[in-house]
Amino acid sequence: MTYLPFKNSMQAKNYLFVLGAFFFLNIPYSQGQDAALPLSWQQTTFLVDTFAGSQVYRQLINTTRVSLADNGAIQSVVQRDFSINQPKGLSSEDPDFYYPALNNRFSEKDETNPQLIKMASEEFFNEKRSTADYAFEYDKNGNVRSIIGLEYWLPKMYFYYDKNNQWTKVVKHIPEERSDHITYEITERKIQYDKNKPLPAFAPVLLTSNGEDIFQKSRKNIVDYYVLAKLSAIFHPENEGGTFDLRNGFYQNTDEGTGAEVITKQMALFRTAAGQAILAFNEFGSDPWRDAEVPRFYGFENGQWVKKSDVFPEIDKGKVLGGPTPSEEEQVPAHFLLPQRGLAIQFVIHQNWLNICKNPSNEYNYQNKEEKCSWLKRLDRTQANIVFDKGSGRFRVE
Hints:
disordered N terminus, 6-stranded antiparallel beta sheet, 5 helices, elongated, mainly beta
């Protein structure tokens, strides 16, 4: 599948519309008596995501080569799994590593028919038209055409076949429970029927951004780094919601979770005068008792994340805010705010404590309120800027 760069969100939406139309119009031919049987096939599974309305990402999960005997039994399986740590793939010839399209996601029973000529004969795909959670649609040959989750948060799957009644594509829609984001998991299969026409070799690429190999991009944007950070497990937004600002290199996600506390997570892209990218990752919550941690800083160099431990100054809460260093009883929670515009990270006293100290009473019995509010009164300011210097690539307290 080839992706073209999108200039706006409408182009991305049109792309998904055309993609969806192709899925629905790809009606299988009925199987005749002379239908050919496969000799081998190549199978590729990948994810497709769209962020910021125009940034389309294709992430390769695995590739599989399967050779069959004359009776249709599997002779050999070679699967290669891809990840951020194995961008070229990690191969296995163990048949236990072979996971066909359904990958045990809808029942406890793995697929056992390697050709899947009659998917309706599988235990899970019987003549039932629905279950408590899913509705099924079959074609005239008895092949399952779709599995539709009856709740908005359940996945949908669509199946497509060739003229020999072999499946060639499975498309799964995976909704995000707490946002309107949908990830598409697509498994495509190329089948060899003629021994004189071998299948072409794979040309796997782990991750593309609008069709371009993301590792080869000379100037990555905030969404590129967001995807890479999630794949590397150094950034963990609770859902795929949030807002990207491509022009200013900023991302923010606010999540209410279970209702105990609102958590805000941020990313910001800073560039040095020499063009080096430094990514800041930040998190803070609404809990007035929680002191937020200092943002984390990374660069992405030679295909790997490198932690930058020397770009941000040590923060003494009193000195930064123009007052004495607080004792343990005087400690008032504060947090950092990454800039959507400009180069200044803000260090701010938690707003809840500013409000608490305005109230002379202590009706909620806040612990050490008197000490904390006494310390706040001695500050010159309740927020300060920590500014990025493009020349040195470091931050300084303004």
